[in-house]
Design a protein that fits this description.
Number of helices: 9
Helix content: 40-55%
Strand content: 15-25%
Largest sheet: 5 strands, mixed, barrel
Strand order of the largest sheet: 1-3-4-5-6
CATH architecture of the largest domain: Roll
Structural class: alpha+beta
CATH superfamily of the largest domain: LON domain-like
Number of strands: 6
CATH class of the largest domain: Mainly Beta
Radius of gyration: 32 Å
Order of helices and strands: HEEHEEEEHHHHHHH
CATH topology of the largest domain: Archaeosine Trna-guanine Transglycosylase, Chain: A, domain 4
Number of domains: 2
Distance between the termini: 88 Å
């Protein structure tokens, strides 16, 4: 039985480390990223032409050589599925996420990163609280995806069909949704399925609040525009009425005779109220 299975950490090993500034990889996820420097090609080489293993780490503050304090305490072990040198320089790499691992130590030598890792034990809580968070996340997805408008119509169905455990479901949702980078990183380094679901529920609740605020702003702007259009219509109607009454040049409300003529005119209630101001 492996260390991850029996609740103990596995053996330590050193692997190349890659810092992704704008992307996040999750276990069982496939991500294609462009690395800007050629040193990545050196870091990702493996003997015998086999696909190398690499640790994708998330930056966390200024780097301190020989210390793991500069990156998040958990990384994603990945298989480098494909590498391609770009004509303008750099390297296009396809990472296939394998599993989470503990970051023990970070080594920086001549601009190349290596990291000492241990297999991490993920907590797949199977209790009522976790089940409730799965249901809450599904409810939020059903409301969020149509309102956002930037997702395929069948994405909710795809996510529902891939409910293979709460932890994997949380990773799948985090990988698919266009959430803030900080939220994705926080989910990626979290070992508890229950906590990952909670992070996503909170993130989607904030998105729904944002939709509500934006909707209220749009409603107010629309009402203001409609009010201005209505006032402009009434002013134009009043000018037409004054021309018909022959006192177009008279100041509004100055002549009692004009008020009498206005009273005799068949005017809409709103136009008459405006004229009598």
């Amino acid at each position: 039985m492996s260390g991850a299975a029996n609740g103990q950490r596995g053996a330590r090993r050193d692997v190349p480390a890659i810092e992704l500034q704008q992307s996040v990889v999750f276990p069982e996820d496939v991500v294609s990223v462009q690395l800007p420097d050629e040193t990545a090609a050196v870091r990702l080489r493996a003997p015998g032409g086999t696909a190398p293993e690499a640790a994708v780490v998330s930056p966390r503050g200024p780097r301190v050589p020989g210390s793991a304090a500069a990156v998040a305490p958990v990384c994603i072990l990945c298989r480098v599925a494909q590498r391609m040198h770009m004509p303008a320089g750099g390297l296009q790499v396809v990472f296939q996420g394998l599993a989470r691992a503990h970051v023990v130590e970070l080594h920086a030598e001549a601009g190349r990163l290596r990291v000492t890792v241990e297999d991490a034990v993920e907590r797949e809580e199977d209790d009522s609280g976790t089940s409730q968070r799965v249901l809450a996340l599904l409810d939020l997805l059903a409301e969020y995806l149509p309102r956002d408008g930037n997702y395929p119509d069948d994405l909710e169905s795809i996510l529902r069909m891939n409910l293979r455990g709460p932890g994997r479901f949380a990773d799948l949702v985090a990988a698919y949704l266009h959430l803030p980078l900080a939220v994705k990183r926080e989910v990626a380094v979290c070992l508890s399925a229950h906590d990952r679901l909670g992070l996503l529920v909170t993130a989607l609740e904030r998105e729904m609040e944002r939709f509500g605020v934006e909707g209220e702003i749009h409603r107010r702007v629309r009402e203001q525009l409609e009010e201005r259009q209505r006032e402009q219509y009434l002013r134009q109607q009043m000018r037409a009425i004054r021309r018909e009454l022959g006192d177009e040049d008279s100041p509004e409300g100055e002549s009692d005779g004009r008020m009498e003529r206005l009273a005799q005119a068949k005017m809409p209630k709103e136009a008459r109220a405006t004229a009598e101001l």
